[in-house]
Amino acid sequence: MQERNNIFYDLEGPVSSKGNAQAVCKKYVKDGGKVFPVISRYDDLLTLANKEGHEPGDTLGLIVPFLVEAGVTEDDIRTVSAKAGLVQGIREFFIELQEEGCIVWIISTSYEQHALSIVKRAGVPPERVYCTKFPLDQLRKEVNKADLTLVREVRERAAELYIDDLDLGDRDKEILTFLTPFYWEKLPQITLGQAMAKVTVMGGRRKVRALQEAIRASGGFYLSDALIVVDSITDWRMAQVVEAAGGIALAWNANWYVLPYASCGVAAVDARAVRPLFKAWREGGRSAVREFVESAPQPEDLEAGPYYHWLAGRDESFKQEMLKIHKKLRTTCRGKEVAKLG
Fold it and tell me: Which InterPro entries match (predicted)?
């Protein structure tokens, strides 16, 4: 089917191994290596609490005050992006797909400066990219410098709240108590908050809308004919929608935030592990994917994969066992520091 010639990818994880916003914070923001995980955890907590108007991935909006305070520029983001590696085999895979007449789309939470840098190297046309628009240089001009005193104080306290295992929840109450008044009471009253409000992060429901828009741009087809490749909390709503429609939500080296919503999983070092699954999809749809996945042998290289598993309809205990494999390969590909984020 012509519709199944389209494949939709998240960027950070399935295409590029490192997290750009985290790397930018670590390089340019004082104590950024501690501040970013704390803000990321706050983002996760807001998502889990289903805060109105908040979407997973809004970390990229929440860290804007600290980027402005540090004087980070759009060129700084591009500089960090230029050093980010691609997932092994992804460029070759994308080029092969496009030579066969397939259309590759990227739906990414990443800042546009990073997303466009990565897709250029990965061989995907920029017009097939949905990401976070981020006019940082203009935002910095709109901010009253007096606002930055408050940001410095918040940054210093956020760094103090950092511990190695934030996902255990030991600091959740303190993080919520401290950051909630800053973001939702103090920031809206100052120029920095007004500038920050102009940043709409591409995550959660916004990714679903981007997927629908890309489908319309491809001539229009049902979500049941969509195959997406995702890995984290910013993708779970998109995975949920596609799986419910009867398409394929493929979890790539995924974490627990998205794995329960996926149709199937692939844990591997080389991106070309998706190729046989996508071939089955194009030729026979969902049933052919399931048949391939369930008949795939164990990998010869247990450290590199690929591991294939069907997830839809399986109980939580099975998914927890698969999560161990994904976590291992996720850490191998992305590093421990990035892999443990939502």
Answer: HAD-like_sf (IPR036412), HAD_sf (IPR023214)
pLDDT tens digit string along 168-223?
Answer: 999 999 999 999 999 999 999 999 998 888 899 999 999 999 999 999 999 889 99
**16 bridge partner residues:** 12, 86
309 Cβ contact list (under 8 Å, min separation 6):
264, 265, 293, 322, 325
Strand order in the sheet with 264-267: 129-132, 103-111, 6-9, 227-230, 248-252, 264-267, 307-310
Structure tokens at 227: 């195959």
Q: What is the pTM of this model?
A: 0.93
Token pair recorded at residue 33: 């290596």
Domains of the chain: 2-18+87-133+202-339 (3.40.50.1000), 21-79+135-196 (1.10.3870)
Half-sphere exposure of residue 191: CA atoms within 13 angstroms, side-chain side? 14
**Tokens matching residue 111:** 């800042």
Parallel, antiparallel, or unpaired for β 264-267 and 248-252?
parallel
Cβ-contact 109, 202 below 8 angstroms: yes
End-to-end Cα distance, the chain = 35
What's the pLDDT tens digit per position in 257-308?
899 999 999 999 999 999 999 999 999 999 999 999 999 999 999 999 999 9
